[in-house]
Amino acid sequence: MAIQYLALTTLTVLYSLMFIGGYISAAGLGLTCPEWPLCPNGIMPSEEYLIEWVHRLVAATTGVLIIATMVAGLINKNADRKIKTTSSIATALVITQITLGALVIDTKLHAVLVAIHLGIGIWLFGMVLLTTLFAFRLSKSAKTSSD
Ligand code: HEM
Q: pTM of the full predicted structure?
């Protein structure tokens, strides 16, 4: 997949993840699945843990997409330092965010950690947004130079 569409897909999945996280928080469902990384019934979804299960599944998908976008940027000969930097920061942030998600569960939703979880989510969104903008600019300049 071209890097700009990979980055845009990543941005869209990340936005959905943040939306689901906001819903979990506002609806007070943050501890419906009290264990990590899996819910008590294992890998399969169940009605009881569904919303948390979806948040974790989409978080794992987001992590894979963010790493894939970084790799696509790093191996692209025409990519400049900006896209490599923002996609690498996004990778560091997503790993931190997933680790923090585990701590949020472990500390039974410690308020400071939940606030940091939101804060890192916003930073992450910013980095993925910038990566997407740089990726579209990259594909445009590659098209112009081939014309
Ligand atoms: C890329 C990874 C992730 C992102 C971007 C993300 C984002 C978010 C956001 C934006 C919220 C709403 C916070 C608020 O409204 O204050 C949230 C809530 C939450 N997240 Fe994540 N999350 C990620 C991964 C995880 C993981 C891996 C876990 C746990 C295994 C987790 C557990 C939670 C919990 C329990 C809440 C609800 C907190 C509460 O009830 O107040 N998150 N997440």
A: 0.95
